[in-house]
Amino acid sequence: MVHDNALFQYLLRLGDNCLIMGQRLSEWCGHGPVLEEDLALTNVALDLIGQARLWLSYAAHVEGGARDEDQLAFLRDAGDFHNVLLVEQPNGNFADTIARQFYFDTWYYFLLLDLQRSANPRVAEIAEKSVKEVAYHVRRSADWVVRLGDGTDESHAKMQAAIDQLWSYTGELFASDGMDEALQQQKVTFDPAKLRAPWVDHVASVLDEATLRLPEQTWMQRGGREGVHSEHLGYLLAEMQFLQRAYPGAHW
């Protein structure tokens, strides 16, 4: 029972990360800087929402079937979401969106590589399917960091500002608690702190190519994984969950 509860909570964290990031990116639909990028952002959002469905569907199964993936997505309040704070931050300008995506994509890619070795067959299967999409996301967001960082004076300044501003939200990506440790003992998951070194190496190499500086170490924001969120998540959920809240049980 302890193992099942830890697995359920862990799956919620994975699903919530993808769901909230996908929702954030979907807000760019129709507002992208160019048509091609408008479509690309929407496609990445769809990839992440698709992955959220896989994680949340499995979470619903582990919970025992009391709720399905839709109920987990649309009928939980902000305090019941367990995504990291990074993914709920506002889109801001295009550089802000790219910095947020670059940090997340790089971490998520290394995490999925680890989870492919999970002793839980379903977790390993979802990770193997998802990593193929996320490998593209990593290349795409890194390319944009370089294009903007090594572009005009204005794009360089905005990209550096975004990299600096969001840095304090990255520490939570590598945190762990008792639930993580319980799953690590079962070889279902692995120590997230060990992802930090390859993550920093990749981030630093891309920033160097982009003529950007790696931010200095600072105090790190945290709380999202435990259900303590910024005010931004409430506004996001109000829009995302409106239809299901207004018309409970509605189907297309």
Topology:
Layout: H1 2-26, H2 35-63, H3 69-74, H4 85-88, H5 94-115, H6 121-149, H7 153-166, H8 178-185, H9 196-209, H10 231-240, H11 242-246
Helix pairs in contact: 1-2, 1-8, 2-6, 5-6, 5-7, 5-9, 6-9
Task: Explain how this protein is built.
The chain is mainly alpha-helical. It has 11 helices and no strands. The radius of gyration is 18 Å and the shape is globular.
Number of helices: 11
CATH homologous superfamily (4th level) name:
Ferritin, core subunit, four-helix bundle
What is the CATH-assigned architecture?
Up-down Bundle
Average of pLDDT? 95
Quick tags:
single chain, 252 residues, 66% helix, globular
Provide a quick synopsis of the model.
The chain is mostly helical. Helix content is 66%, strand content 0%.
